[in-house]
From TrEMBL, chains A, B:
UniProt keyword list: Membrane, Transmembrane, Transmembrane helix
GO cellular component: membrane
Residues annotated as domain Anoctamin transmembrane: 107-534
Organism of derivation: Oldenlandia corymbosa var. corymbosa
InterPro entries in the cross-refs: Anoctamin, Anoctamin_TM
Name of the protein described by the UniProt record: OLC1v1014951C1
Principal subcellular localization: membrane
GO molecular function, one term: chloride channel activity
Topology of the protein relative to the lipid bilayer: Multi-pass membrane protein
Localization of this protein: Membrane
Domain of life: Eukaryota
Membrane-traversing stretches: 115-139, 145-170, 240-262, 268-285, 311-332, 421-444, 472-498, 504-523
């Protein structure tokens, strides 16, 4: 039903936290609607001239789409709002003394929900990291005498409890944020929608119920189920291909690196090897990522969100193998904890300092170069009539976009940021017992990460197109998976630590049963993801 | 907004599967509204005479409530619809040859959703049980030669996969049923509602936002959080008291039984001991259940559904300790698998045959006795003028209600039925490797259970008041918990089976680390329940 909106009854409407009537996401939608739906309604075609080109605007055509296809309009993108941006730079990006405090409501109204949720998560994660950071520092620095024997297990137990509690409280916080922003969070809305459409349509006309209950319904249902399960089967085949290719291609490479690292004596050579390894892995990952994108694109599912999640799982699987297999090799096969610790430090420094620097500086210099060229080009054209300053829109046009390094259609730059966080979390959690100090490094890094990410978004990049995602999505499952993995790996590390001579023994029968138990627990908790529990989604427009 | 309902536009409304406009639940609500809201509106009080009593019906009073307090109306309860009932007896309760097939839609429209969901679950569970039943029979009967060594582990792995898949598919089936019955299944609706009410109210008037963001909001929030966490703390304290009292009271009793059973030689004495044990345990459980009910009633939470779930967890905890501790004692401490098997058979026969018989026959004979007395009383009063037949309403009034044996306010008879199913599932799953034939027993039992439960509801009991629950609720979590437990217990059983002489060894350090690992995995998956992830619930009437 349509109710007319009167400006003087504006108080009756629920508003955004910043007082405006629509969110940035909704406003952008409106702008797009206005821009793209400027359609010619009357008959005689209109003609424009632009340089040498002549454009003919015919009836029923959108002017903007016409201009885009002709190449006259290069791109449509949202501009930064300079007043708001400067305010945010001041209150958020350069506000170093607040440590983890951020003006989340303002971020939400400027960048949209998804980015605000990322920063809320990053802030809360960093705040919570202070506890294990301090604990790790104490464990590393203080000698507890005869209690030393129990310190690492105690640290480990506290850590797992901490991680579990953190994610539970994050879910609460996320719900509270959504309630504050007045968002309806229907879990899995839009997913597995089709399954119910069928069931609904069968019961829309109850008088036909008995008729439809016959063979017709069963064949329709069967065809639909065949489709659904075939799509799922395809997906798992793809996952299987990815995993197999990773194992075949990457594992020997990883193991060779780990082996060489253990064999080489000179520290300098070792460092060189690590640098070469890390750079080549970047290259390898990019290939793997492209394969993953291709596989995802061939999947049957048409839902963008679902495919984005699928991509997240696949790419994280790749990175997971890459980042940790070499470390496992050091830890378990060589029982060489000193080397493991050194490799961990190198990785942490490399990934956190170097990658942060590269990530932020390369786009900046690219932008500067582009700008310099543009100014020179302009000067040439105008022959010195202008002082060489670019107009604001052109400057923004030259800025890089906030996009994922792997697949621009499905994910934006948050993919890279979350990937970085997940890899860091995995590294510090899974090898916690080998190197408790890692938490302190991570906490320090994340404090700077908040501000550098903020600066990147506000100063260096184009304003991103807002997305309406209400949670951190697939990443939450990945973090949960990392906690479970970390329980197992830390137990292995503890065995290595306390049993340096390899004197502990265990009967092979017991080992077999233990392996079976772990495999079954994995099945129990893994299958819950394999066979989706269909959540009830009402067909659009009914409620 | 009110829209008028016209009978000739009835086609525009969505209807129940059976063609009626309202569900049985809704209709009963309407009847109750009509019955209880018959209120006198004009002034002079009316007087009735009934036997010796005189009732004065004053203005603003509900006639029915008045009559109830005066004791003239004894009880208001729904009657069976004889046509529908006879049809259901024919198509459902006595339709033995359909095995697990049931007319779920008809059950739903006659008994309401909750009971239909129970029978759908029971049917699907029994249907799925055929696979492990057949597998168990094969494992029990056929000798696989040298492969015999791998048969039990293979059986166990298949079983866990089966159980996990079953519950995932049950969730799908449940959603499909709800979609068919056109029910909106908002997860956890009505729970944790208060948490959001606060957040919402703070943002209802965005212009006051900045003012409220000050100290006032923080104190309000803090007070609220204190309340919330205090309630939760009370709940856990109660849980702790229950568990401790179980351990103190019951464990010695259980262990004494298990010990005597192992010591006594004569088979007859053993059987007698078991019967005494099982009867005394029934008594003990009833005490435990009453304690649990009292604890639940003292909890801060006011939500009925939430308290019902809390009761389910507590009572199941009690039964779990009771039913399995003695068995564990046989399995692990005595390494006596033959005794374990015999005890399992006794338990299965007792719980499935004897309890089923008692459960069904005692209320029936009670009803017969009551009816006999009523008829005799009537004959005395009327002095032989009537043939002694009771009117239908009086007959129904004498029938027992479908109520839980433990707490009538929070749960109905489904509580007992689900408890029976969960205990059976736990028994057959947790000791699967010791006694694979149990699945066959369970499958046979459940086929009869479907029909006897149907008969009980249709013939023996009063028509139950329908409930609007859309899932099997807390029981699903209990089943999931039993799967995880069964993985661990079966591993222990396998160790006992393959290592009869106790020759396998393991270093104490490894044992410590393994115990720690299992404890942490328990924390990981247990904490997810302890710290509830608040689901977003919109305040009523907004959507």
């Amino acid at each position: 039903m349509d109710l007319q909106f009167h400006m003087d009854e504006i108080d009756a409407f629920i508003r955004q936290p910043d007082g405006s009537l629509f969110s940035w996401h909704e406003r952008l939608r409106c702008y797009q609607h206005i821009l793209y739906d400027t359609v010619k309604v009357n008959k005689p075609a209109m003609k424009f001239k632009c340089g040498d080109k002549e454009v003919c605007w015919e009836m029923g055509e959108s002017i903007l789409r016409k201009l885009e296809t002709e190449g006259i309009v290069k791109e449509i993108f949202p501009l930064h709002d300079d007043v708001m941006r400067k305010q945010l730079v001041k209150s958020w990006a350069l506000n170093w003394w607040d440590f983890t405090e951020q003006p989340i409501d303002e971020i939400c109204s400027y960048f949209g929900m998804k980015i605000a949720i990322y920063f809320a998560f990053l802030g809360m994660y960093t705040r919570w990291l202070f506890f294990p950071a301090a604990f790790g520092l104490i464990v590393h620095l203080i000698d507890f005498g005869w209690l030393q024997f129990f310190v690492l297990p105690a640290f480990f137990v506290c850590l797992v409890t901490w991680a579990v509690l953190f994610f539970q409280f994050w879910k609460r916080k996320n719900s509270a944020l959504l309630a504050r922003w007045q968002v309806d969070q229907t879990p899995g809305a839009g997913r597995d929608y089709k399954a119910f459409e069928l069931e609904w349509s069968l019961f829309q006309f109850p008088s036909d119920h008995i008729k439809k209950y016959g063979s017709e319904k069963i064949t329709e249902k069967e065809a639909f189920q065949r489709d659904e399960w075939f799509g799922r089967f395809m997906r798992y085949r793809n996952d299987f291909v990815v995993i197999l290719s990773i194992i075949c291609l990457q594992l020997p490479f990883e193991l060779a690196y780990a082996h060489f690292y253990a064999v080489i004596e000179s520290d300098l050579l070792k460092f060189g090897l690590t640098v070469v390894y890390l750079l080549s892995i970047q290259y390898l990952t990019r290939i793997g990522g492209k394969i993953a994108v291709k596989l995802v694109n061939r999947e049957a599912s048409k839902n963008v969100e679902y495919r984005a999640d699928s991509l997240v799982y696949k790419v994280f699987g790749l990175y997971f193998m890459q980042s940790y297999v070499g470390l496992f090799y050091h830890a378990v096969l060589h029982r060489n904890l000193m080397t493991l610790r050194r490799v961990l430090i190198q990785r942490l420094i490399f990934s956190e300092v170097v990658e942060n620097l590269l990530e932020n500086s390369i786009p900046y210099f690219k932008y500067k170069l582009k700008k310099f060229r543009a100014v020179r080009f302009k000067r040439k054209c105008d022959r010195g009539t202008v002082t060489g300053k670019l107009p604001r829109v052109e400057k923004e046009f030259l800025k890089p976009t906030y996009s994922a390094s792997i697949c621009e259609e499905l994910e934006d730059g948050l993919f890279d940021d979350f990937l970085e966080l997940a890899l860091q979390f995995g590294m510090i959690m899974m090898f916690a017992c080998a190197f408790p100090l890692a938490f302190t490094f991570a906490a320090l890094n994340n404090i700077t990460e908040i501000r550098t990410d903020a600066l990147k978004l506000l100063v260096m990049l184009r304003r991103p197109v807002p997305r309406h995602d209400a949670t951190i999505g697939a990443w939450l499952n990945i973090f949960q998976f990392l906690i479970v993995m970390s329980i197992c790996t830390n137990c292995i590390l503890l065995v290595c630590l306390y049993d340096r001579e390899g004197e502990w023994n265990i009967s092979p029968g017991l080992v077999a049963i233990l392996v079976m138990e772990h495999a079954l627990l994995l099945i129990k908790f893994g299958f819950s993801h394999f066979v989706p529990e269909v959540k009830f989604v009402a067909p659009g427009g009914y409620f």
